[in-house]
Amino acid sequence: MTTTLKLATGSIVIGVVVLLLKALAYWITGSVALFSDALESTVNVATAIAALIAIRVAARPADSNHPFGHHKAEFFSAVLEGVMIIVAALVILNEAFHAFATPRALDAPIEGLMINLGATAINGFWAWLLISRGRRHKSPALVADGRHLFTDVLTSFGVAIGILLAYATGLWLLDPLMAVVVALNILWSGSKVVKESLSGLMDEAVPGPELDQIREIIATEAGGATQAHDLRTRHAGSITFIDFHLVVPGETSVFEAHEICDRVEARLRAELGEAQITIHVEPEHKLKSTGIFIVD
């Protein structure tokens, strides 16, 4: 089992543990704010399962029906997670509306908060692990899951502060008010996850710094060529796709052109990790006025 699959499986286990703890905190207090926190953990479990399925699909090798592989499956998981976050936020807003109409004092607020904060500490550690390892392994599903968990950590602290203020002042309307704040926060988080995932599905180019790195590698490693142009890039899961045209002098042999391409591809993979690279070799009359000019 790969590291990515292990982390995705671990997210399900962690999600269930945190959900049970937060559900217990809600059960002993009756807090709408803690209910909102528990509901978000329900989403965490569902999306962790979706992420695991997506990662397993993305790991499948290319076949006759999917010659470019299954890497985009992870983006679908991230979109699903964003949509489920938004749905959870709407449910929380509905519960908060009813709580505003009939506010009441909470049962055992301190005990409930202690349980909830314990669950939050677990979430905080796991969110950091998912984001750091997800970036290392270029897994958008893991990074999206980690960002969602980190948002959950921040909102859990906000919930704790709101309940403590309600307990200290006797203003129990602060409980549903905090639930509304949580809902609005996760609405923002969900919309951001959906936007980033749709960018991947729409084959958005790699970020500026990475694109500059690719251009620099081509310019320095393609010695013997004249120019590279029509560079196209995109990400799909952990794979970076790179496509460009390489202009070589007319006297360059097929063997020499192949050696240049091999050198460029080796350096790109060494710097970027897993990549699918397509290089179209062209004669010098295909030179364009703009492009990447090779450093001799």
TrEMBL record:
Domain Cation efflux protein transmembrane: 11-202
Chief localization: membrane
Keyword Transport listed: yes
Protein's UniProt keywords contain Transport: yes
Protein name: Protein p34
Segments forming a coiled coil: none
A GO term for molecular function: zinc efflux antiporter activity
Entry's localization field: Cell membrane
Bilayer disposition of the protein: Multi-pass membrane protein
Family: Belongs to the cation diffusion facilitator (CDF) transporter (TC 2.A.4) family.
Entry GO terms, CC: plasma membrane
InterPro entries with a match to the protein in the record: Cation_efflux, Cation_efflux_CTD, Cation_efflux_CTD_sf, Cation_efflux_TM, Cation_efflux_TMD_sf, CDF_Transporter
Keywords: Cell membrane, Membrane, Transmembrane, Transmembrane helix, Transport
Domain Cation efflux protein cytoplasmic: 207-284
GO biological process: one example: intracellular zinc ion homeostasis
TM ranges: 7-29, 41-59, 75-93, 113-131, 152-170
